[in-house]
C-alpha cells in the first residue's frame, strides 16, 4: 500500500463534518482512540479506477449496516461522501488500482464522539493473481452457520476493524504454502475469505453463499454477478459445503481492489482456472463507473 492522501472528518456535534487534510505520514489518531486500543470501529475499502469510486453506494450501505451492528451513530452520507471523494481526488493514474479506505472508530476512550477519516492510497497490482490464479486453503472459522442469528454480539458479518483473526488466517495459509483462505463454519458451511467473497461455477451457473451465514455482502460479488448475468449466466445465492467446492467447475475469491481472482489450487489439489469467466468478470468490474 502506498498512502497518498488523508482527510479527517470531524464527527463531533460542533464539528459538523468539517474536513481537514493531513499528511498520511503524520501521527493523527491519539493512542487512546478505541479503534487503536480495541479495534472498536468499522471500515470500508473502495477501488478507484479512472478517477471513479467504484460501487460507492453499496460500500456506504454496508458501512451503515456495520455501524448499526456495532451501535455506532448512523453515518452522515453527505459528509462521508465528501471525505471519500476528497481522498480519491488525490489518486493519480497508475497501473495499480487506487483505493480509499474510510474508517469510523468509537472515538477516544471516555470521549463523546466517533473518530472518522478517509485515506487514499495505491493498492497492490492484482494482474498477476488474475492471470495465474491463487492457492487457497479451507480453514474452520469455529462458529456455526447460524452464529449471526444466535449470537449477534460476535459481529459476524460486520466489517469491523477487528481483523487480527483475518490476518492470522492469512499467515496460517502462508504456513501451509497457500496465498489465501476460505473460511468454513464449524458445521461445514462455506463462508467467505478473510477479505473476499467466494464465487463457484457449476456448469452455466455462478453461486455464492448467503449473507445470513454471518458473512459480508460483497460489493464485488454483486457486480460480478451483474456482469455474468449480462452475458447470459444464471446466478444463485445458495449454501455450499466443502464437498461442493470440490465438485465445482471453477472457483474465485473476489474483493474491491483485487477483482475476481481465480483459484488454481484448493487444499493442495489443482483446480481448473476458468480464464474466460475471469476475464469477463474483471473486464466489467474494472469498467465500473459508479
Ligand atoms: N468478506 C470480507 C470479510 C471482507 O473483508 C471483504 C472485503 O474486504 C469482502 C468479503 C469483499 O467485499 P468487497 O467485494 O465489497 O470488497
Automatic annotation (TrEMBL):
Stretches of the chain forming a coiled coil according to its record: none
Keyword Lyase: yes
Example GO molecular function: lyase activity
Keyword Lipid metabolism applies: no
A UniProt-annotated Pfam family: Aminotran_4
A GO CC term assigned to this protein in UniProt: cytosol
Family indicated by similarity: Belongs to the class-IV pyridoxal-phosphate-dependent aminotransferase family.
Protein name: Aminodeoxychorismate lyase
Amino acid at each position: 500500500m502506498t498512502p497518498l492522501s488523508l482527510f479527517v472528518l470531524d464527527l463531533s456535534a460542533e464539528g459538523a463534518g468539517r474536513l481537514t487534510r493531513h499528511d498520511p505520514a503524520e501521527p493523527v489518531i491519539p493512542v487512546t482512540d478505541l479503534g487503536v486500543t480495541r479495534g472498536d470501529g468499522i471500515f470500508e475499502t473502495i477501488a478507484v479506477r479512472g478517477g471513479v469510486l467504484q460501487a460507492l453506494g453499496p460500500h456506504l450501505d454496508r458501512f451503515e449496516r456495520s455501524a448499526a451492528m456495532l451501535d455506532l451513530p448512523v453515518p452522515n452520507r453527505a459528509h462521508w461522501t465528501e471525505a471519500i471523494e476528497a481522498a480519491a481526488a488525490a489518486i493519480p493514474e497508475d497501473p495499480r488500482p487506487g483505493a480509499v479506505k474510510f474508517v469510523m472508530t468509537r472515538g477516544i476512550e471516555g470521549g463523546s464522539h466517533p473518530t472518522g477519516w478517509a485515506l487514499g492510497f495505491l493498492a497492490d497490482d492484482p494482474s498477476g493473481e488474475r492471470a495465474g490464479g491463487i492457492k487457497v486453503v479451507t480453514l474452520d472459522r469455529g462458529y456455526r452457520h447460524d452464529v449471526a442469528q444466535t449470537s449477534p454480539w460476535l459481529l459476524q458479518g460486520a466489517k469491523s476493524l477487528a481483523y487480527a483473526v483475518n490476518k492470522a488466517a492469512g499467515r496460517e495459509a502462508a504456513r501451509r504454502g497457500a496465498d489465501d483462505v476460505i473460511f468454513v463454519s464449524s458445521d461445514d458451511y462455506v463462508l467467505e475469505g478473510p477479505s473476499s467473497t467466494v464465487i463457484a461455477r457449476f456448469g452455466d451457473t455462478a453461486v455464492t453463499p448467503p449473507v445470513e451465514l454471518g458473512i459480508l455482502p460483497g460489493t464485488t460479488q454483486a457486480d460480478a454477478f451483474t456482469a455474468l448475468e449480462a452475458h447470459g449466466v444464471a446466478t444463485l445465492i445458495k449454501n455450499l459445503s466443502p464437498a461442493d467446492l470440490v465438485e465445482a467447475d471453477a472457483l474465485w475469491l473476489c474483493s474491491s481492489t483485487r477483482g475476481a481472482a481465480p483459484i488454481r489450487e484448493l487444499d493442495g489439489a489443482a483446480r481448473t482456472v476458468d480464464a474466460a469467466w475471469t476475464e469477463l468478470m474483471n473486464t466489467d468490474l474494472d469498467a465500473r463507473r459508479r
